[in-house]
Amino acid sequence: MSKLETNFLASEERLSLIRDHKLEKDGRKRDRMKFILLYNDGWSYAQIAKVLLLDDQTLRNYLKDYESGGMKSLLSFHYTGRPTILSEFECKELEAHLSDNTYLTSYQIRKYIKAKYKKEYSKKGIISLLHKMGFVYKKAKLVPGNPDEVKQKEFVANYNKLSENLPEDEEILFLDGVHRGHNVRVAYGWIKAGVQKQVMSNTGRSRLNINGAYNPRSKEIIYRNEETINAKSTGMLILDILDKYPNAKKLHIILDNAGYNRANFIKTFENHSRVNLIYLPPYCPNLNLIERLWKFLYKKVSVCRRYKKFIDFQNAILGFLDNIAQYKDELDSLMTENFNITRLKPLNFILD
Predict the structure, then answer these.
(1) Is residue 2 part of a domain?
(2) pLDDT (tens digit, 9 = 90+) per residue, 18-32?
(3) What is the extent of the structural domain holding 164?
(4) Are 97 and 216 part of one and the same domain?
(5) What is the 3-state secondary structure (H, E, C) of the chain?
(6) Would the pTM count as exceeding 0.70?
């Protein structure tokens, strides 16, 4: 016979339990909370069992747990779950195998385990095992070409030396172009389950071509809106840079290996002016600081935003560039002169 009488919960305890029930995601725990609330209000076992779809003995066990240790005891689950089918050694061996070989489906992994270890996992079981090993289902990252790690490190070391010893009358600028199509980019967001939110797309194919140079010391950007980006338009941008810094004895301009950037017309600037051209290692956009600015621009202007007319889209981008100072706090943390080295490890995808 229970020692608890009706209304054994103090008023504050009852209200607190109701609040906890609303926040609890585990249905088993919510049922146990409801049982205590209903039992406190004088409901019989039969009444509660009918509402919660539980048997009488289960409810009596709930009450014993509550009487022995309160809500903490009631909401604890005294079982450890099914042990992993694979041994500890086999799990470590499998983890090493999956680190070197990428399977596209969990079914393939189940098939591999069955063939090698003569053991079987359900779909739910293998996913649980993969999560315990630290694996998640995600896309591999696509990177351009085959970047040379040694050359990347050399560039970073040379850049740091240049930047740390840069005289006041010299400037460093990162130069690159960006091409933005007049379209909408959809992004992830917190949306209520079962609700679909839609963003209307554009049908136009117009594209905006911006050629720009970013100064990490002054946080300034110099840009040109071009019909196309080629050697001539890049040369015009370099002339704008020279006009921007008339008193600079040297302008170190860092740019990629696009064919037009290596045209003779561009190299004449280095031969007859204050310009020092520094070319990035091949396939290394990760080392071009202005690439981060372009991504930031796209996030601010294009993600989940629709511009019905191309002129509105163009004005939004140019307005961002003309008023870049308003994003100072965000850019201070984004546009740091810290560079990530791309290290490629060949991926062995299991396709069968």
Answers:
(1) no
(2) 999 999 888 889 999
(3) 149-185+200-334
(4) no
(5) CCCCCCCCCCHHHHHHHHHHHHHCCCHHHHHHHHHHHHHHCCCCHHHHHHHHCCCHHHHHHHHHHHHHHHHHHHCCCCCCCCCCCCCHHHHHHHHHHHHHEEECCHHHHHHHHHHHHCCCCCHHHHHHHHHHCCCCCCCCCCCCCCCCHHHHHHHHHHHHHHHHCCCCCEEEEEEEEEEEECCCECCCCCCCCCCCCCCCCCCCCCEEEEEEEEECCCCEEEEEEECCCCHHHHHHHHHHHHHHCCCCCEEEEEECCCHHHHCHHHHHHHHHCCEEEEECCCCCHHHCCHHHHHHHHHHHHCECCCCCCHHHHHHHHHHHHHCHHHHHHHHHHHCCCCCCCCCCCCCEEECC
(6) no
